[in-house]
Amino acid sequence: MSRLMFTKLTLTDFRNYDFAELVLDGRSVVLTGPNGAGKTNVLEAISMLSPGRGLRGARLDELTRRPDVGGGAGDDVAQTPPSAKRTPIRRHWAVSSVLARGDDEVRIGTGLDPDHAGTKRIVRIDGFAAPGPGALAEYFSVVWLTPALDRLFAEGASQRRRFLDRLVLGTHPGHSAVAASFEKAMRERQRLLEEAAHGTRADEAWLAALEAQMAEAGVALAAARLQFVQRLETEIARGAGSAFPQAGLLLTGPLEELLRSGKSALDAEDWYHTELMRRRGADGAAGRALVGPNRSDLEVFFGPSGRPAKDCSTGEQKALLIGIVLANARLKRSLAGGAPPVLLLDEIAAHLDEGRREALFDELYSLGAQAFMTGTDRHLFKAFGERAQYVEIANGRVTSGASD
Q1: What integer pLDDT is reported at residue 2 of this predicted model?
Q2: pLDDT digits (tens, 9 = 90+) for 128-138
Q3: Using H for helix, E for strand and C for coil, what is the string for the chain?
């Protein structure tokens, strides 16, 4: 296994940072400081070095530093002092990094493209323009846990799908491109169906082509998710005896059921294509495709009792979630030549008792994963000791990064 770690991270005009540079030594990183200092913003910056919209799902123009209004990112944003409000607003944000992979280094950067009015970001790898954010999946994977995910099991299926797809991306780098292909075809099909509902005659050939694209990409999405969940279940079982409970997993949806029953991908595509044609009227009226990977769900159960995770206590749900993330990291590491994902764990220690904090730190260290963790109280990370690098954040500034 090749070790994967960030050795340098630079933020420019990102959230509440005008400029910040973190020089890292490869250990896990503990970011401490008061509420509003900008700790979560560092995690978000790292998350933008991967495909997608980052851990907050923010619009690209929301990430640019706004000296006149502060960082603009919720609870963990410093208020800009009056003197800073006179600073002219710059045109775009940027995040750059040096990523070590074994004996090699790669420089990865992304930022807002000033030529597209805040609607497009650019990606550079070793100084060369990449075709798009999807290219980032080839270099490393990142998984995050934030307080917003504490209700993952109690809320709607869409959040669980996004969480699952982030995990799948770590082992299937092309997953995001397939998902984008499906989403694009689905949106275009829906537009045609809605126009038809208002009396505009649909182009039947184009509609059929879009449905064929949805069928092919939809089955590929379902198959990748199903394969990943099966692998993850095996890894969870191997981790029996951990301080974190075993999770039972079930991916639900008609396509998943077909594939699980032994149907071939071609048979599943034929079924789905036919179903899409049959449901045109219903989908047009509903304003969305009612069947497909866009409606699948990941059901999670508390292993020791088999209870649905949504019925478990908050503490049990948090422990289940951490157990899934750790199993995913072990799975990624077990692949040939693989390395565990970079983990972004926001306010993670405050929600665990002392025994589970120690167990989490021990497992992160044994995995060889570089984790970035935030907290207001450094004492909560005492058990990590010298295995972590400690960085203090105050008012959008890196005030210290001494190794302990």
Answers
A1: 65
A2: 999 988 889 88
A3: CCCEEEEEEEEEEECCEEEEEEECCCCEEEEECCCCCCHHHHHHHHHCCCCCCCCCCCCHHHHECECCCECCCHHHCCCCCHHHHHCCCCCCCEEEEEEEECCEEEEEEEEECHHHCCCCEEEEECCEECCCHHHHHHCCCEEEECHHHHHCCCCCHHHHHHHHHHHHHCCCCCHHHHHHHHHHHHHHHHHHHHHHHCCCCCCHHHHHHHHHHHHHHHHHHHHHHHHHHHHHHHHHHHCCCCCCCCEEEEEECHHHHHHHCCCCHHHHHHHHHHHHHHCHHHHHHHCCCCCCHHHCEEEEEECCCCEEHHHCCHHHHHHHHHHHHHHHHHHHHHCCCCCCCEEEECCCHHHCCHHHHHHHHHHHHHHCCCEEEEECCHHHHHHHHHHEEEEEEECCEEEECCEC
Q: Contact 245/332 with Cβ under 8 angstroms?
A: no
Q: Tokens 């394969």 correspond to what residue?
A: 227
Name the pairing type of β-strands 342-345 and 388-394.
unpaired
CA distance 50 to 57: 12
Could you name the CATH architecture of 1-140+339-404? 3-Layer(aba) Sandwich (3.40)
So what's the pLDDT on residue 91? 63
- Answer whether 0.85 is exceeded by the pTM: yes
**CATH superfamily membership of 154-312:** RecF/RecN/SMC, N-terminal domain (1.20.1050.90)
All CATH 1.20.1050.90 domain ranges of the chain, comma separated, are 154-312
List of the chain residues with pLDDT < 50: 1, 70-88, 402-404
Q: How many CB atoms lie within 10 A of CB 386?
A: 9
Instruction: Report pLDDT for 206.
Output: 94
Tell me what pLDDT residue 84 has: 43
**What's residue 80's pLDDT?**
38
Start-end of CATH 3.40.50.300 domains in the chain:
1-140+339-404
